[in-house]
Amino acid sequence: MAEAKKILILGGGYGGVWAGKILEKHFRKDQNIQITLVDRKPFHTLMTELHEVAGWRTEPESVQVNFRKIFGAKRINVVLDDIQSVDFKTRKAVGKARGYDFDYIVVGAGGEPEYFNIPGVKDNSFSLWSFDDAMKIRHHVEDIFARAAEETDPAARKRMLTFAVAGAGFTGIEMIGELLEFRDAMCRKHYIDRSETRVVNIEALPSILPILEEPLRVKAEEYLSRKGCEVMLNASIIGAEPGKVMLKDGTVVETDTFIWTCGVKGSSFAASLEVTKGERGRGRLQVDAEMKSPDYPFVYVVGDNSFFLENGKPVPQIVEGAHQTAEVAAKNIIADIEGRAERHQFKSNFHGFMVSIGGRYGVANAGGMKSSGFMAMTMKHMINVWYLLNIAGINQVWEYIKHEFLDIKDRRSFIGGFATWKVRGYWPLLLRMWLGLMWVMEGVNKIGEGWLAWSAGSKSGWMFSSGVTQAGMKAVEAVSAASAEGDWSAAAPAVEAATETLRSRYSISTASSAPGSARRSWTASSPISRTRVSRR
User: Fold this and answer.
1) What pLDDT score was predicted for residue 367?
2) Would you put residue 48 in left (φ > 0), alpha (ψ -120 to 50) or beta?
3) Contact, 289 vs 346, CB < 8 A?
């Protein structure tokens, strides 16, 4: 038996999970391949939806996909650990819990906020680059509104009710959108006049969302203006202190809530690895078109950790970039293990960009189609559903639908609030009790009136009515009366009516047995295989 090959994946983000899915699917029946994925959390985080949790639109579970749902019954070992170092020469990674030997390694440890060495920013701001970051913002914003409602000092109250977000890229604008909606909900809850609040977006560039086309940028900015957001363009931040954000033009924004979304770099862990770094990669690791490190042929890097220039530009740190780099790396590892000559080269194929501004509005340029409002939000939800279906199946899609449409509060879903209404438990209970009583009484009536005796016919009553005599009963009563009086012609209409009822109910076909015959035969597909009624 050949010696088992060990593949180690560091990080359960978009790149690590995608690479793990491809590798596991290919080697599912090969007992000589061992795949291990190591992450500090027991769940995969939907990084693109963190703003929803930070702004209280959805619950924390909405951005968590447990690794058991992704890899539960598959041949991949998911380990909860924090990797401290990697020795590429001995091919061993060391975590807090234990060590991990490997033949091939995939580095997908994600990214971190980039503060550009601006004094005071890191220590006096909130970041939005992890699940823990989102939870900190979530609880801080709720707490600051509660404290502001009790604050009597006008200056302190104004500072508490001022919210500043640095950066007008995707993350910044999405965070602003959530703050605007959450602000309205908190103002209603704490009886704060909305005019007392101030939501500010600070951007060093001359426009928001620079990666999108001008018409979409204009629509987004107009929507922010309607919602009461103050957009400060060409405003460079030069420093921050507790309760203050200093701008290059001398402006000082006083706020107790300063959220930084201006940049991203490779993780500190990735930057500490002894492999070649990207020249302009800010902690990202240099790779070739095969997503392989130039230092070791068994080291592959994916997602935010990889630095590769395509047409002179670095691969952007977006979800599609993580997926496509992970696919290249996984396929090349398969080729390495199986000794194939074919190699896979990275070639980007991005389908567009989407940004939500709260739960009810968004702008998008995806699939060659520009859209805004309802259509943009529909597209974003469809992409999320497709992704969850691919990594975790239909159950996770249902969880997403519940979080985004059925459990959302304050009408913050783009379909409104009608889907969130729930009936109080005591109303269905009373209704079930009433219907149950009616069914019991109806059953008693049917049994008492001959419900089990078909030959005698039956009566059907509802809600204490006198009941409706069925056609079979009418025919029996008419024949009985005719027999008693000796006048068979009087029973003919009732018999004919009963015949028509049986024919329509049991698909009975009729045919004359002979010309001039006074007898008719019916052949039915019902349990009564043949019924003959004679008239003399």
Assistant:
1) 82
2) alpha
3) yes
Note the pLDDT tens digit of each residue in 459-504. 444 444 444 455 555 555 665 666 665 665 666 666 676 666 656 5
Beta bridge partner(s), residue 310: 313
Q: What confidence category does residue 535 fall into, taking pLDDT thresholds of 50, 70 and 90? A: very low
251 to 122, 231, 238, 349: CA distances (angstroms):
20, 14, 10, 42
DSSP annotation of 406: I
List, in order of start, the domains of the chain with CATH numbers: 5-40+81-111+265-341 (3.50.50.60), 115-262+350-422 (3.50.50.100), 430-469 (no CATH), 471-536 (no CATH)
Report yes or no: 286 and 292 within 8 Å, Cβ to Cβ. Answer: no
- Taken in order 370, 375, 379, 384, the sign of the CA dihedral is positive
The mean pLDDT value of the chain amounts to 87
- Considering only CA atoms, which of 282, 362, 304, 380 is closest in space to residue 130? 304
- The residues facing 471 across adjacent strands are none
* Rounded distance between C-alpha atoms, residue 7 and residue 328, angstroms: 15
Q: What is the largest CA-CA distance in the chain?
A: 115
DSSP-derived 3-state class of residue 526: coil
For 196, the token pair is 């007392």
Q: What are the b/e assignments for 288-326, b being 16+ CB within 10 Å?
A: eebbbbeeeeebbbbbbbbbbeeeeebbbbbbbbbbbbb
Name the pLDDT band for 282 (thresholds 50, 70, 90). confident
Distance of CA 269 to the CA centre of its chain: 29
Strands 126-127 and 111-113: what pairing? unpaired
All residues at 6 or more sequence positions from 243 whose CB lies less than 8 Å from its CB, including other chains: 159, 254, 255, 256
Q: Which tens digits make up the pLDDT trace of 151-186?
A: 999 999 999 999 999 999 999 999 999 999 999 999
Output DSSP code: residue 263.
Answer: -
Give the model confidence (pLDDT) of 69-89 as tens digits: 999 878 899 999 999 999 999
**Token reading at 56:** 């209280």
> Reduced to 3 states, what is the DSSP secondary structure of residue 530?
strand
